[in-house]
Design goal:
The complex is a heterodimer of chains A (693) and B (218). Chain A is mostly helical and 693 residues long. Helices cover 70% and strands 4% of the residues of chain A. Chain A folds into 2 domains: 3-555, no CATH class; 618-693, no CATH class. The chains are: A mainly alpha (693), B mainly alpha (218). Chain A binds chain B through residues 71, 664, 667-672, 675-676, 678-679, 682-683, 686-687, 690-691, 693, and chain B through 95, 108, 111, 114-115, 118-119, 135, 139, 142-143, 145-149, 154, 177, 179, 210-211, 213-218.
């Protein structure tokens, strides 16, 4: 497909989708269907565009001017390998969300008025369209415009669903944090545009070449905090576990699976493409900071996820974890890139791992959010403790959720394993190239990544077990039924992606060629990782490839299937007599669903181990009948705190309120006084600075 | 038109603008202040038209048209309506005596002229004394806001101050980009509309004006 016309077509699809909100005048359901259909069309066109760039002539950048909206900036789109790759990630998840969306919205809120449906359709199309075109932006102005559009549209979606106070607060927090981050980005970009005298990225690149080291590093850290706020790295993540669960589930999938990745795109574009020095490695403070931040986010994200009982909040915390894993790869690539004697192809491996994990996380996190959404649309309950026993009632959802859970826990043969394996290879390879404390940091990071994988598995054992296994704990769970087919199809699309990327990742490496080669000006991903053919992944650490670790996911899968089959056959052969159904022995009591393992109980050992981190609060009230031996009722309440929230945000909050208290004591409240004060200040300023010159 | 004629016309218009400003400052009744500010806007529209013919900048014609419709007719009408709807005493109640206000105004005007004398490069041939007049109008508008007791006075003050900004921008740069001028006008329209609605609402629910706002302070 011609890329120029593809972009036009994509814009037309999303525009038509946004306009279809007008159909809600006649029928809200019609607006929902048409709007999501337009999103689907836009996403499919986006897939076509991105694939044609990724598989087309390498190293080509396509630019397309946009109509001039401002007298001071020329707007343009520019698609290169990196843009196309992120466009691919966005489109893949958007396809699933568009298929899944209408049925979900109809079942979750059947009594929603046409106004709300129109808002959701409009905001969804604007949201997805802005993300898609953000990755194709060719200048800072376009980039920031779409960035802002993405933020505003997602805010509308966050507050659109349940109109209660908590959603409104989550939306407000999101809005404040997002705009704080955008403000820093604005500063970073405007410093460059002011030097360049133009907005397009090529001019910024040229302007960045003349920067001195301090300014360059300052700009990078501004951008890191700005993009990090959107990506939800610790400690800037506080908005994420509140805002993501509040949105409709397919939007949560888009926000967690895709929107965070757009921030990663921004960081890669800004650091590697625009701000990087013309020659030589990146300043070493950049990569190490990103590595440490990534490691912290990964570990803390999964630790906080373990203690969540709201299924969507749990998934949102896992996004913090996975962004951490992606940033570990990015940080490592920054450290190793162009560094004499240590870098080489290892930087490519690290960046490949990060980019592949971006795609993988989009697939499995999207799948998990859609799975959670299909549970929620049927039960209207988000607390896992009130679910249970859904595997029998919603078999398809349960199976697909399990698939996603295995993938996110980085277990073979699914896709999460592949990218974490590559991250490990890059870390272990990198650790060997540095000596002293630097090497230790990398080894520590690898150890933390291993811990993260283990904890994620524990967390999803809890999430899946408590939600889908056992017996239903409430009537909501008991009367649940399977989700409608279109929702299953949406999930199955992402599930298939997880399996395909897990079983045959070598074939996906071709897609990573253009972004890695374009960004690092070195060999492409497939030349390094699949040097021995698409069936074998290797880190390619030495030229001959002899000392390199290698793995064939296809063989691993075959082996796993064979082992399972053997175990099944053996077990079948050893079975004597037919199975007999009998009631469970429970010491003379009849077992109820309250006997099942709860989520709180499951996470308790870890709550003990990491008590310094969680600062758990626990309250047990016993109601006894006369004597202490007859307990009528036990009331248990417990919670853990988010350390970033209590240690950083609450302190800032207290500081601001005490400051405003002291200002309040000095203000008169008389408006004339204030205006007079402004006038006098103007007067004095004019006299001081105006006359002297 | 020769440059000399334009310069004379702009200077005369500047004098008239300052005169309308004095009228606003000294107005005993709110209606008079509104008429004065409408007249001021009319003068600005004329100034824009004169500059448009002199410089051949077509954007200035658009600006003159917008100023004439919006600031000379629509906004004064809105203010007039608010006064009628509020149905309150129409006398202006100054915070400080009118004589003191006028003395302050004289100081502001003198300082503006003194200030602009030092800003050589900006003082362009065609615009003559427009710069000090613009600065004076802007600051005097704020003075109106500071000395008026009711919200209506402050709306008038904001309006006049904005006229000053407009005159300065127009005279000094001979027409800023159209989008910026339109943006400034939109700002004022919105501000006046929002304030008008607020004033009516506040008046109808709690029967208080901004002088009573200090009671809100905790």
């Amino acid at each position: 497909m011609n890329v120029d016309s593809g972009l036009n077509l994509m814009a037309a699809c999303y525009g038509a989708g946004a306009l279809s909100a007008l159909l809600a005048r006649w029928s809200g359901r019609l607006a929902l269907s048409v709007g999501h259909l337009a999103t689907l069309a836009g996403a499919v066109v986006g897939l076509g565009v991105s694939l044609s760039v990724l598989l087309g002539v390498p190293g080509r950048t396509l630019t397309q001017p946009l109509p001039a909206l401002f007298p001071f900036a020329r707007l343009s789109l520019s698609v290169d390998g990196l843009s196309a790759y992120f466009l691919l990630v966005i489109s893949l998840v958007a396809v699933a969300a568009a298929v899944y969306g209408p049925a979900y919205l109809r079942t979750y809120s059947p009594d929603a008025g046409p106004a709300r449906q129109a808002t959701q359709v409009l905001a969804l199309n604007v949201f997805v369209g802005c993300m898609a075109f953000l990755c194709c932006a060719g200048d800072a102005m376009t980039f920031l415009l779409f960035w802002e559009g993405m933020t505003l549209a997602s805010y509308v979606l966050v507050v659109s669903d349940d109109r209660d106070g908590e959603n409104a607060r989550a939306g407000l927090l999101y809005m404040v944090m997002a705009h704080g981050g955008t403000a820093l980005l604005l500063v970073a970009f405007l410093v460059l545009t002011e030097r360049a005298g133009a907005f397009d990225f090529a001019a910024l690149r040229a302007a960045a070449g003349d920067l001195d080291g301090t300014t360059r590093t300052t700009l990078f850290f501004l951008a890191l905090v700005g993009f990090g706020t959107k990506a939800g790295v610790v400690p800037l993540h506080v908005w994420l576990p509140r805002a993501h669960p509040a949105a409709p589930s397919h939007v949560s999938a888009l926000m967690s699976g895709v929107m965070l990745k757009v921030a990663i795109y921004g960081l890669l574009r800004f650091a590697f493409d625009i701000l990087a020095p013309v020659a030589g490695p990146l300043p070493s403070s950049w990569g190490w900071t990103v590595l440490v931040v990534g490691t912290t986010s990964a570990v803390l994200g999964v630790l906080y996820a373990l203690q969540q009982h709201d299924i969507k909040r749990l998934l949102a915390f896992h996004s913090v974890e996975n962004i951490g894993i992606i940033l570990i790869g990015v940080g490592l690539a920054m450290i190793l890139w162009r560094r004499e004697g240590v870098g080489g192809v290892l930087a490519t491996v690290a960046l490949t791992a990060a980019l592949l994990h971006t795609l993988n996380h989009a697939a499995f996190k999207g799948l998990l959010f859609l799975g959670a959404g299909s549970v929620i649309s049927r039960t209207h309950v988000r607390n896992m403790e009130e679910l249970g026993g859904l595997a029998r009632r919603m078999p398809w959802t349960a199976g697909l959720f399990l698939l996603g859970a295995v993938a996110i826990s980085a277990l073979p043969p699914l896709n999460g394993f592949v990218s974490e394996w590559l991250t490990f290879q890059a870390l272990l390879g990198g650790a060997g190239r540095f000596h002293g404390p630097a090497g230790l940091v990398i080894v520590f990071s690898a150890a933390m990544l291993a811990l993260t994988g283990g904890l994620a598995a524990a967390c999803f054992a809890k999430a899946f077990g408590v939600t889908f296994l056992g017996r239903p704990r409430t009537a909501h769970a008991e009367h649940a039924t399977e989700a409608p087919p279109s929702m299953i199809v949406g999930m199955a699309w992402l599930g298939a992606l997880c399996v395909a990327l897990g079983v045959a990742p070598g074939y996906a490496m071709r897609l990573l060629d253009a972004p890695t080669a374009g960004l690092l000006h070195g060999p492409g991903a497939s030349a390094v990782v699949t040097a021995r053919g698409p069936m074998v992944l290797s880190a390619g650490l030495t030229a001959s490839g002899t000392a390199a670790t290698a793995i064939s996911m296809t063989m691993v899968t075959a082996l796993l299937i064979a082992l399972t089959a053997i175990a099944w056959v053996l077990r079948r052969g050893s079975r004597r007599g037919p199975p007999r159904a009998a009631p469970t022995w429970a010491c003379g009591m009849s077992p109820t669903s309250r006997f099942d393992y709860t989520a709180t109980a499951f996470a308790k050992p870890l709550r003990f181990v990491f008590a310094t981190l969680y600062r758990p609060r626990r309250e047990v009230i016993r109601e006894t009948a006369g004597t202490p031996y007859v307990v009528r009722r036990i009331h248990y309440a417990g919670e853990v705190v988010d350390l970033a929230e209590t240690q950083i945000y609450h302190r800032v909050q207290r500081g601001i309120s005490s400051l405003s208290q002291s200002i309040r004591a000095r203000s008169t409240g008389r408006i004339h006084g204030y205006i007079g004060f402004v006038l006098a200040a103007l007067f004095v300023a004019l006299l001081l600075f105006g006359v002297d010159q | 038109m020769s440059a000399e004629t334009v310069r004379t016309i702009i200077d005369d218009l500047g004098a008239l603008l300052l005169f309308t400003m004095i009228l606003i400052l000294a107005a005993g009744q709110i209606y008079r202040a509104i008429y004065a500010v409408a007249a001021q806007s009319l003068l600005i529209a004329i100034a824009a038209a004169v500059l448009a013919t002199a410089t051949g900048n077509t954007d200035l014609w658009v600006i003159a048209g917008i100023t004439l419709t919006v600031k000379t007719i629509v906004l004064p009408w809105v203010l007039h309506r608010v006064v009628r709807r509020m149905n309150v005493r129409r006398e202006v109640e100054p915070v400080i005596p009118v004589a003191a206000t006028l003395a302050l105004a004289v100081m502001v005007v003198v300082m503006s002229f003194h200030l602009s004398a030092t800003l050589g490069p900006v003082n362009q041939a065609i615009t003559g004394n427009a710069l000090p007049v613009g600065i004076a109008l802007t600051l005097l508008g704020v003075l109106v806001m500071a000395t008026g007791k009711t919200a209506l006075n402050q709306m008038v003050g904001l309006f006049a101050s904005e006229n000053g900004i407009f005159f300065t921008a127009m005279a000094v740069t001979q027409g800023m980009p159209l989008i910026i001028e339109i943006g400034v006008i939109l700002d004022v329209i919105l501000a006046v509309l929002v304030m008008a609605i607020m004033v009516l609402r506040v008046r109808s629910t709690v029967d208080a004006d901004i002088a009573g706002l200090d009671r809100l302070k905790g």
